[in-house]
Amino acid sequence: MKLATTNNSRRLTLKIIACIKQVPDSEAKVKAEGGQVTWGDAPLVINPFDEYAVEGALLTKEAVGGTVTALCIGPESAKEALKHALAMGADEAILVSDPALENIDTVAAARVLAAAIKKIGDADMVMFGRQTLDNGSGLTAAQTARVLGLPMLGWVGQIKVQDGSVIVDRVVEEGRVTVSAKLPAVLSVVQSIGEPRYPSFMGIRKASKANIPVWTLSDLGIEAPAAVVTRIELMNPPVRETVVEMITGETPEAIAETLADKILREKVL
Amino acid sequence: MKTFVYVDHFKGEIQPASWEAIGLGKTLGSVSAIVFGSGVDSVVKSAFEYGADEVFVADDAALEDYRAEPYASTLSALASAQTPDLILFPTTARTRELAAMSAVDLNTGVLTDISALEANGDQLVATRPIYEGKVLEKTVCSGKPVMATIRSRFFPKPEPDAGKSGTPIKVEVKAEALTTVEGYSASESAVNLGDAPVIVSGGRGVSNNPSLVPPDGLDEKAAEIWRAQQGFALITELANVLGGAVGASRAAVDGGYIPYSHQVGQTGKVVTPDLYIACGISGAIQHLVGMRNAKVIVAINKDADAPIFKQARYGVVGDLFQIVPALTAEFKKKLGK
Ligand SMILES: Cc1cc2nc3c(=O)[nH]c(=O)nc-3n(C[C@H](O)[C@H](O)[C@H](O)COP(=O)(O)OP(=O)(O)OC[C@H]3O[C@@H](n4cnc5c(N)ncnc54)[C@H](O)[C@@H]3O)c2cc1C
Ligand SMILES: Nc1ncnc2c1ncn2[C@@H]1O[C@H](COP(=O)(O)O)[C@@H](O)[C@H]1O
Q: Residues of B numbered 76-95 whose beta carbons fall under 8 angstroms of chain A's beta carbons: which are they?
């Protein structure tokens, strides 16, 4: 963390990294077909959970000053997701791309992200989404924190930076837990942070011209970490044959009586 | 097979899926429960009652509040020394972190949100949802121990046996912490949707009752929230009569009607109750992926063309402000409450 002097007021310049992934759009009709996952011609987009990570990074930058770097492991096409982060307001973007990274598990992704974060250097905060839409494991943030030996603040809905520390509200099943840690730290951000901003017209223009560096494993000076978790089979979930039965009646009370009887007969209470 | 089960609790309040994990472990062999915290005698006692063959306990002031680093280090050291084949966790915000970090320490991997686990020779094959449950995958983990977090309500819960007890085995605590817990507020947002057998959810429709006249002096937005709160009061009453929890759509959460922890769906919680009653929810795909595996779905909506009806077992086209209170009254009568 560096101190910068602007207009006589001393502001922190935090270096914030937001880790994002590219995934098929949430409206996509995803299926298992011939041992592959397919989604027709649905577009690939920034993982929706990671928009909160970018939003959290931008809010923090606006509050205390600093820069936001978006970081992604993915194929060349994932540059589009990075451009979305740039258009939202990130200052720079880096893609880590290597054919050897096609089928990595989360621990491997964490090791690669950790190496990239070290190469970027001087990070004060590393932001993650809660989980990915595709793999959906929600492990990578904590694993990256562990590899880097940094404090882990998960499921964060509010962020405050103060005197070299970060104070967050974790939104967990039981309520809100306020937790602090010295910077640098790793955070995963949830929806309570606030709606992710839409890219501005200027942002989209800037992003379309941005030069996004691509780092390979050899640029990071590491080998492809072997995957410990592997998929052996893909399946479509069993189709549920639900035929809706519409309940009608003369009055709300009559409808309620019929409906309550039907529900009781289902033996779910 | 030697299985460890991490019993997750918050200030002594135990995640019931911990017991479902013990039940699952028992189908594979012996089960040792793991209990961390401070002053956790009652958690240890319950672990024996729910069938743990032995209980490892780290009861220490340094573990008073859950914090990722000391919990993960203590767990990793225990697993290194005891070499279990499998460690099971209920799936919560805490256990995802804890399992994730220990897996790094132990050079293994985590299978999250599993809905089935079979032994195939000496390999464990887990079934888990990917792409928001639009597809399922079978996965294996080549590291040891295999770590897995189980989905709530997918595995049978064993019956506790109050006669069972034992002496727990003390575990050495690795206390280095990188975070400090400053405070906690249960707020009205404390809700455990994952374990609820019944969920009654409200959507944007709960604010749509023009005949309700808000108190003077509220601007348009405040009046909308006030109306929605009257709507959610009706939904809460029905949930209470059915012994269930209150859920919400994202539109209701974004509208400021109810806290985020109630949100069901892609960016909220994925739930599988026995009964899900959707009130004033249109049924967008991002909501459906969160609740479509409920056993029985009931939809109450003004609009006969709302997509939610395609997922429902029973549907009512009507005003939730009339139907929900009538249903509450009916169940009060029928359930003798
Ligand atoms: C990336 C992403 C993630 C998302 N994640 C989630 C998520 O996790 N959960 C989620 O729910 N959504 C999520 N959404 C939003 C989702 O697309 C929908 O916008 C949202 O579910 C709509 O909520 P709703 O059904 O309450 O509101 P609406 O779609 O506005 O529907 C309101 C319904 O109420 C009915 N209604 C109105 N008045 C009454 C009345 N008096 N009585 C009865 N019925 C009435 C109307 O007919 C209508 O069908 C996500 C969207 C995106 C893009
Ligand atoms: N390929 C990737 N590139 C960059 N960040 C990633 C990648 N995969 C996962 N992440 C980050 O890790 C979070 C959790 O991912 P997961 O553990 O796969 O659910 C995501 O929300 C992202 O912030």
A: 92-94
